[in-house]
Amino acid sequence: MAMAAASSSLRSLRALSISRALSPLPLLRGFALRLLHQGVLEEGRRGGPGSVHPTAVVHADAMIGQGVMIGPFCTIGSSVRIGNACQLHAGSHIMGDTELGDHCIVLTGAIVGADLPGQTIIGSNNVIGHHSVVGVRCQDLKYEAGDKCFLHIGHNNDIREYSSIHRSSTSSDKTVVGDNNLIMGSCHIAHDCKIGNNNIFANNTLLAGHVVVEDYAHTGGAVVVHQFCRIGSYSFLSGGSAISQDVPKYMMVSGDRAELRGLNLVGLQRNGFSSVEVMKMRRAYRKIFMPINTNMGQFDDRLAEVDKELAECPAVLSMLQSIRGSFEQDRRGICKFRNWCGS
């Protein structure tokens, strides 16, 4: 009797499985999904080659370029615009009013844009790493719900895994990242930051709101930068440093509440500065920050002396402008310096 009952139950389960398999609902859902993806491809790409995985959810109003590859379980919102030859890897999501340029790669788990007022614009040839969050709401308490906020990213940036880049905190400002930057894993660029070109941020570099980083700056790992600070071009921030004031151009800083440690000689040489330029910058640095005796006048007097003696060198003039600019109204001044630090 037990064996007969078990055999009857098995036959019932098989019949139920067959009836479900033959049910038209899964077939209709699959057919509708294929039609949706085919329509998106044909309308957005105008017949260009590309692929959309059947599990991806692509809104019919999204604008998709030619040759776009959309992987499993991706979602693309209604206001999204994706350029040609982009790759969206499994589980990546693009939302809100977001524009992605040509030849971009969005890796697994990354989130780009948000369903908020405002816009995220990303240029061409960018890589957005695994589980990065780019173009989402800022963490500034002065942000008001419903206010438009913006993020603009240029071209050829490599944004590595678990990094975060936030939109601006107000509609009158925007977060900006330029071109050719390497932003390593777990970095954070907060609201309203202005990042230039050709910078390298090592892992866990954290930039607070309104920070300005010029061009060709380089940070070591676990660097933190206070809000409203400015990091000058060709500067180097040693690993583990806490930056609470401006770092002038061409200089190197280190330490908790970082202090000037001299010129970034390695960076200057690597970026093509001549030996003559470096020699004049070292001379200027010593006169400004390493006075031989106390009779060389106040800080402003030493700046004026260097301006008179070495201003014919464009690099020295740029250094002086960077230092003086840090003492303008609403600026934070420069990092502290010690007379014994080398250059």
From TrEMBL:
Q: Report domain UDP N-acetylglucosamine O-acyltransferase C-terminal positions.
A: 246-335
Listed Pfam families: Acetyltransf_11, GMPPB_C, Hexapep
Check the record and name the SUPFAM superfamilies matching this protein.
Trimeric LpxA-like enzymes (SSF51161)
**From which domain of life does this come?**
Eukaryota
Q: Which GO terms describe its cellular component?
A: membrane
GO molecular-function terms, A-Z:
acyl-[acyl-carrier-protein]-UDP-N-acetylglucosamine O-acyltransferase activity
UniProt KW keywords: Acyltransferase, Cytoplasm, Lipid A biosynthesis, Lipid biosynthesis, Lipid metabolism, Transferase
> This protein is called what?
Probable acyl-[acyl-carrier-protein]--UDP-N-acetylglucosamine O-acyltransferase, mitochondrial isoform X2
